[in-house]
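Fill in residues.
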């Protein structure tokens, strides 16, 4: 059974930092492309970060570039999202995702690349 479990979400003030974790079971994350997505109420799901392989140059949405960092620990089978300089616009449910590296290319941050999803962890940023 494949399971992705996010943790680390919290309610914080603007300017703060969070580190989100996504622990996997049932799959080995180093064999998959990985991504972080977020969705705020009334808004579409947005891909914020992705990693093609453990040592690839990550891809980031323009809205988070310079503040978010995606990384992976193969030994722990865990993917992370470091979030710095949090802004109220970062308030959302954050989901980690994994998917195959083959198939048509839609874009590094396109959800169609990902077939395994976690349940999400809530990040709330107050001003």
């Amino acid at each position: 059974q494949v399971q992705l479990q996010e943790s680390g979400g919290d309610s914080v003030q603007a300017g703060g930092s969070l580190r989100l974790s996504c622990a996997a079971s049932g799959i080995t994350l180093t064999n998959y492309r990985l991504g972080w997505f977020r969705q705020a109420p009334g808004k579409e799901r947005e891909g914020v970060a992705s990693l093609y392989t453990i040592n690839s140059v990550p891809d980031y949405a323009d809205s988070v570039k310079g503040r978010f960092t995606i990384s992976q620990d193969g030994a722990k089978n865990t993917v992370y999202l470091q979030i710095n300089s949090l802004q109220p616009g970062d308030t959302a449910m954050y989901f980690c995702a994994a998917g195959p590296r083959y198939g048509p290319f839609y874009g590094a941050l396109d959800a169609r690349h990902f077939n395994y999803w976690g349940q999400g962890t809530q990040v709330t940023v107050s001003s």
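The two ends are 40 Å apart (CA to CA).
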